[in-house]
Request: fold
Amino acid sequence: MSRTDLGPPDYKEMLPPVIKENYGQWLYHEYLKPGVMKHVSEKGDALYTIRIGSPRLVGLDTVRELCDLADKYCDGYLRFTSRHNVELLVSNEANVDPLLAELKQKGMPVGGTGNSISNIVHTQGWIHCHTPATDASGIVKAVMDDLYDYFTHDDLLPARLRVAMACCLNMCGAVHCSDIAILGIHRTPPRIDHTKVSKVCEIPTVIASCPTAAIKPDPKNKSVKVTEEKCMYCGNCYTMCPAMEIMDPLNDGIAILVGGKVSNSRTAPGFSRLAIPFLPNNAPRWPEVTEAVRNIVETWAKDAKKGERMGEWISRIGWERFFDRTGIPFTDKHIDDYIFSIPTFRTTTNFKW
Amino acid sequence: MTERKTPMLDELEKGPWPSFVTDLKRAAEKNDSVKDLIAQLEQSYEEKKGHWKHGGIVGVRGYGAGVIGRYSDEPEKYPNIAEFHTLRINSPAGWFYDTKTLRNVCDMWEEHGSGLLNLHGTTGDIILLGTKTNELQPTFDAFSDAGFDLGGSGSGLRSPSACCGPARCEWACYDTLDVCDNLTHEYQDEMHRPMWPYKFKFKFSGCPNDCVASIARSDLSVIGTWRDTLRINQEEIKNYANSGMDIQGRVCEKCPTKALTFNSETKELFVKAEDCTRCMHCINVLPKAVRPGKEKGATLMIGGKSTILRSAFLSWVIVPFMPLEAPYTELKDLIARIWEWWDEHGKTRERIGELIYRLGMGNFLRAVDLPPVPQMVKEPRANPYIFWQADEVIKADEATK
Reply:
């Protein structure tokens, strides 16, 4: 019988000696080149970190290759970041350049530090989720291919760029505070299978799951009915009840939100706001999505002051100018009509043309 | 087993970014379930539609969490992924690994599952992607013997996560790894046997840069900060100035409270301590010269979550400053009070932030015994609809006495 409630492995045993010896005693760090950081401790010890991009969804061959690299150059230690990057931890400076050369030869991208795009935090999508409006890994691959130079360079963008992708409104990727959020959306109400509802769903829970009170009991059918004009297609009812199918290949697609961040640096953390309400699901490479993201990134890169995150740039120039400069049309879809809409309305005569 | 041409997925092997499709194909050479997975995914790409059935409860002995049931909706066509469940494995704090451990993960997963994994899931677990129902217990047994355990899922505590903290960052204002590890071990029951209204997440960031997005993605955000003043090394300020850094423009003018002044003649930087809000900007730009203060701890914030159901919330300040030293008794006592109130009042699938919004921050603060302080609000209310407590008003019978 296996043991239960062990908890996670002891992180202390996973740390390379240079970290154990300098734990809590780091003094400063510097970026030596894109993707290469040097941390120096109060004792004068140094740790070199090489950051590489990863598809996150990996097979054992890739993980073993990473282990081979860590054994060869890093005394057998590596870590992963909150954005799915891999960090090879080098304590011997002489190993840095040979490691970089081998990574280059293997085609593994080094970067993601300083003023660059880091890896895209993302969800499962069609590969393994039961409620997706789109795929996640495929869009991430297409967008990162397109923005590759912004990963491997740290002098092309005004500030860091954090992109996140979630394949439906459940937002397992919590994309709502990203410089650019790529979000799978549904656009049509759930289709109810009345023969299944009473068998597989708990009707009061389904009714309570609707944030707009669009779901009502339908006692005649021992089922529920949906007031379609109230539904905003969040899919929460489907999460509670498999008989409320929400996926719709004809209408599902992508929304793009911009200008959010989590860091407290300079300005407070804030939500991403809707820039593009809908783009089609054109697998396998989503050209409309990659083009839209590139347009936003390059307009920001051209227009922002040094050090200005996407949201800081937009608040300086104003949303009127954002739509103007990016050429993105402003529509009725951009005006909020959900719970906390009122504070987003303009309540001053001060605006720009 | 279905082998078919995959012209759409093949397109995703092109381009410089590492391709998950290449990883899938390599894994398929050793595992028939991945062959079916690729075929089903190609079908999803053609039809623009997912092909996983809704839910399904599976698990391992003694646990109510950590395993996510997954079934193909075309099991006759793709028999090897008729069952293709996920196990969430709780990662070591900070996602540090030695290769012996990671190779062991590979060996075990090669024996028991598809050989596909996420490093890591968005909550921070190692995601083992795809195995059959009868392999779940043997997989868990192997991982357990190797010193691993399952992570959280469902309406319980989700696997807490932490930034790299003092292991590799000079800005960590508390030991994020130790707090994360300590609390994860403390709350094994809450994680493995879900019994709450809904999920609850902890994320531990060592400083206000918040590298694990604690403020946006955790019900209780623990974000490192300091109470005293910035430490400035004037020699290094001179070095930055001499190397051409525009300290006035890039640091002082960007300071949100204009708390910094730069003397361009002496090349010295000064902070007006009482105006500094500890945003990290000057430290980020001048890492060799400016450091957080010495009186370190954390700001505790509550309610962060994404949009489902009643809009996304960023976490709200409830404790402006708490020193965090093992065994973290003050933090754990507060967590116990928060969970007790949420457990008592929360509706099904109501996150703590939504419950606070429904019942009021005042009620929450009184219930968990936290004193109101101005640091909790951006500004006071603009309406006079105040809930007065019974002991705050004069009762008629008392007035006549």
User: Anything to note?
Assistant: Chain A has a mean pLDDT of 96. The first strand of chain A starts at residue 26 and ends at 33.
